[in-house]
Amino acid sequence: MSLALAAKARRDLGRFFSVKAQPKGLVRHGLYARLRHPMYFFVDLAVVGLSLALAQPLLLTAVLVLVPIHLYRGRKEDRLLEEKFGEAYRDYRKHTWF
Q: Vertex 41, ends 88 and 87: CA angle to 5°?
């Protein structure tokens, strides 16, 4: 389910998706209506779920690597989006979680 939600987040981004953070526009629909970084969140959740489903605790170490990377990237994206969209992005942040 988490991977499906990560894929939905990717679709919600549509033409604004890029591998490197590039503030092209604000996406406020779909999963982005409540989460600023749903792809990161649901990928991390999927790795935890996979670890539990396969009874492979070592997969949890992947989370120890992914979460800090995703937090770093999320903060970087937040800064870039705030620089480009200013008050509109600050308002968006007030109504969303991570």
A: 10
Write the pLDDT tens digit of every residue in 18-50: 888 888 889 999 999 999 999 999 999 999 888
d(CA 11, CA 45): 18
Which residues span the domain enclosing 7?
A: 2-17+25-94
Task: Mention every residue, 6+ apart, whose C-beta is less than 8 A from residue 72.
Answer: none
Evaluate whether 28 touches 20 at the Cβ level (below 8 Å).
no
Taking Cα atoms as reference points, which of 76, 15, 4, 11 lies closest to residue 42? 4
Name the pTM for this structure: 0.85
Count of domains forming the chain: 1
